[in-house]
Design a protein that fits this description.
alpha+beta; Dihydrolipoamide Transferase; Chloramphenicol Acetyltransferase; 7-stranded mixed sheet
Length: 461
């Protein structure tokens, strides 16, 4: 028997630290190779960390909530030397196939096996019998794919039929409520959340409280249940830390300029309505964002510089023009702002793009967006309209030259052929890196996006 330390690995992102979100094992548990031992949060995603050893869990060297540097030991295993792969050796044990819809896992390890200590993930769902529910076969398939129990869905269709929108709405709401818990208001008006202890490498962090004599009285008052202040301190880490760093870098390295245009999107709304009613889209959620995405891809092909990037090299700067579109969609999630992207979106037809947007949205809300899905974006859309905002001046995602903001679509008076009529009106705004593209180019790009939203038939080319 031997004792093995397991150091926090680099999950393939080049990151320097991660937070221990939750331990899935405890001292004394028996684990097999590739069993999930803990869940960590990097600056980009939640990752399930599998065990490289088979044996018994010895000691947990980092507390839940602690931020640990890559290379620091986080857990010990008591192993049989004959079964252990050992440092530097490749683990070749075959892992079971991942469950559909499972979370991200560490690259190169695979997913968890069947350890007796493994806990059931909250995202795992079972669908009960839906006999008696009125729903078409495509809707039933959609419900099975999303893990939605049709008996719990409120139908809005004719004669009490469950529609595609009913299932998608239920899935979206369930996703949000699985990830968000409403906190209760306590009696304390101030609470200082201590930043993770960054003690020496190899020392258990945050596992035991410091002696009372080592803590100033003022800190005890702030942390204790009788604190009487009016502020709250929240440590900056994880997604918020990464977002703040990226936005500061972007705002102070790229000269931002924003242009916008108010448009009549009535024909876009008509197209969305027709697509929702089409049997071809029975299992797909369709929204104006789909038409917006197609418009951005179409317009980027006509103005390639908006899809380019400013690159600093040893010999000076250069502009990298991408002849493909990895379309980023800014997503507000329970973990913070994420910008996953759809790879090679220019090659997708309307239906495949709609499916990709559906997967991206649900995965982000579940907190399962992988690091790879957030890398390599070329241009981004942020849909601020879902928050009721008319327009905005978004900050460019680092590594890109343009970002488009879509405002809310609402009925307003609009002049059509000399007459004032109610129309569906929205505002499209675009921020751009003035080092890469000039105002005339970005103006043409936004005008093209607006033209498609005004007349989606332009996409038929």
């Amino acid at each position: 028997m031997s004792t093995q330390n397991f150091n926090l690995p680099d999950v393939g992102e080049g990151l320097t630290e991660a937070e221990i979100v939750a331990w899935k094992v405890a001292p004394g548990d028996t684990v097999a190779i590739n069993d999930v031992i803990c869940e960590i949060e990097t600056a980009k995603s939640l990752v399930e960390l599998p065990s490289p050893h088979a044996g018994v869990v010895g000691e947990l060297l980092a507390a839940e909530g602690a931020t640990v540097e890559v290379g620091s030991p986080i857990i010990t295993f008591v192993t049989d030397a004959r079964d252990d792969a050992g440092p530097g050796k490749v683990v070749t044990a075959e892992a079971p196939a991942p469950e559909e819809g499972g979370g991200s896992v560490l690259v190169g390890y695979g997913t968890g096996g069947g350890a007796t200590s493994r806990r059931k993930r909250p995202a795992e769902r079972q669908v009960r019998s839906s006999v008696g529910v009125i729903a078409k076969p495509p809707i039933r398939k959609l419900a099975r794919d999303l893990g939605v129990d049709l008996t719990t869905v409120t139908p809005t269709g004719a004669d009490g039929e469950v529609t595609r929108d009913d299932v998608m709405t239920h899935a979206s709401q369930a996703s949000v409520f699985r990830n968000i818990q409403t906190p209760e208001w306590g009696d304390v008006r101030e609470e200082t959340v201590p930043a993770p202890h960054t003690g020496p490498v190899g020392v258990a962090r945050g596992l035991a409280p410091a002696p009372a004599s080592a803590t100033p009285a003022s800190a005890l008052q702030a942390q204790g249940p009788t604190g009487g202040g009016r502020t709250e301190s929240i440590p900056v880490k994880g997604v918020r830390k990464a977002t703040s760093s990226a936005m500061v870098q972007s705002a102070y390295s790229a000269p931002h300029v924003t242009v916008w245009k108010e448009i009549d999107a009535s024909r876009t709304m008509e197209l969305v309505k027709r697509l929702k009613a089409s049997p071809d889209y029975a299992d797909i959620r369709v929204s104006p964002l789909l038409i917006m995405a197609r418009a951005v891809i179409w317009a980027a092909r006509r103005t390639p510089m908006v899809n380019a990037a400013w690159i600093e090299t040893e010999n000076g700067a250069e502009i990298s023009v991408r002849h493909y579109v990895n379309l980023g969609i800014a997503a507000a999630t329970p973990r913070g702002l994420l910008v996953p992207n759809i790879k090679d979106a220019q090659d997708l037809g309307m239906k495949d793009l709609a499916r990709a947007l559906n997967r991206l949205t649900l995965t982000a809300r579940e907190g399962k967006t992988s690091p790879a899905d957030q890398q390599g974006g070329t241009i981004t859309i942020t849909n601020i309209g879902v928050f009721g905002m008319d327009a905005g001046t978004p900050i460019i995602n680092p590594g890109e030259a343009g970002i488009v903001a879509m405002g809310t679509i609402s009925q307003k008076p609009w002049v059509v052929d000399g007459e004032v009529r109610p129309r569906w009106v929205t505002t499209v705004a675009g921020s751009f890196d003035h080092r890469v593209i000039d105002g005339d180019g970005m103006s043409r790009f936004i005008a093209d996006v607006a033209s498609v939203l005004e007349e989606p038939a332009l996409l038929v080319d």
